[in-house]
Amino acid sequence: xxxxxxxxxxxxxxxxxxxxxxxxxxxxxxxxxxxxxxxxxxxxxxxxxxxxxxxxxxxxxxxxxxxxxxxxxxxxxxxxxxxxxxxxxxxxxxxxxxxxxxxxxxxxxxxxxxxxxxxxxxxxxxxxxxxxxxxxxxxxxxxxxxxxxxxxxxxxxxxxxxxxxxxxxxxxxxxxxxxxxxxxxxxxxxxxxxxxxxxxxxxxxxxxxxxxxxxxxxxxxxxxxxxxxxxxxxxxxxxxxxxxxxxxxxxxxxxxxxxxxxxxxxxxxxxxxxxxxxxxxxxxxxxxxxxxxxxxxxxxxxxxxxxxxxxxxxxxxxxxxxxxxxxxxxxxxxxxxxxxxxxxxxxxxxxxxxxxxxxxxxxxxxxxxxxxxxxxxxxxxxxxxxxxxxxxxxxxxxxxxxxxxxxxxxxxxxxxxxx
Length: 419
Prior knowledge:
This protein is of the alpha/beta class. It has helices at about 5-15, 20-30, 35-50, 55-75, 100-105, 110-115, 130, 150-155, 180-185, 295-305, 320-330, 350-355, 375-385, 405-410; strands at about 85-90, 90-100, 120-125, 145, 165-170, 195-200, 215-220, 235-240, 260-265, 285-290, 310-315, 340-345, 365-370, 395, 415-419.
């Protein structure tokens, strides 16, 4: 057994420990695999600085370049049955996609073939699930991505002591498939990330899953949930609900403990906005995208300072007027922001120019915005602002018919400005 395999198994068992990844990078360098060693180190640095949208562009470009040069070789080293869109995390492979039939055939030697893999995406061959659940391969996995009501029926009754991450698609079944009780927490005692999408079901009683930290619900054509308390320790919640229905889970008293909230593609009724009109003392990141919520709807929440801990705000494709955005940037929350992303929100130039010209933007570390029209005055305001000393990540996507002044890209040598 090689030292490299031992390190990969340790990384798989301790996914949040970046120190192990850096030790693995040192081992790769000792073996002469300089490109892969550098890729691991760069990817760790990108993750530690907030991901591709927030890290210095030089890191992101180096990571992309290394991947483009070597990805084909690295994928070719995987078994042929595991090369369908594998996924790397911070430089180390974490997930492979295999058919249920191939998992039956090779599952007992998965740790030998792929010592660093934590998660397996199980595709096709739904008729193989009865045989699959009888094998020990699934019980060794820390993550499962799969689909189908029949497969869910088999998996939900299994005891999976190591399972930490579960993503399930196309769960078109009867509500009994999601009638979880306390026994489910006993079967999956370590589950901390759950993603349910493309199905028709009421929300199970997730309060019985006390270790759950991250929940993503994509109700494409799903029935609205009724009631349902969120887990007491939930930190991350994403709702994708393209229908006119109240996102009932936001009524949960445990929402007050959320740290990251994403509301994407959710068509809300105006009365539903009262669900957001509460204090969010722990919330660090708020993302609202294609939701039917306007900046005017958000103004009362920001004026009442409902988000005292907010450090990252992402507003994508929201209706807005110039006057509303000027009022928004004058609220207390904007004086504390470190990361801001504005994508295709109309009439924000005057407000951004006002904010960037004041000391209230002095904490800003990352700025990402996209416009469909020229905004030369805003670009000039950024260049001339004395308050952007902490800014290390700048991304500007402008109209293809417009070019920013050269001095903008010269002012932010760690940024990215493109038209």
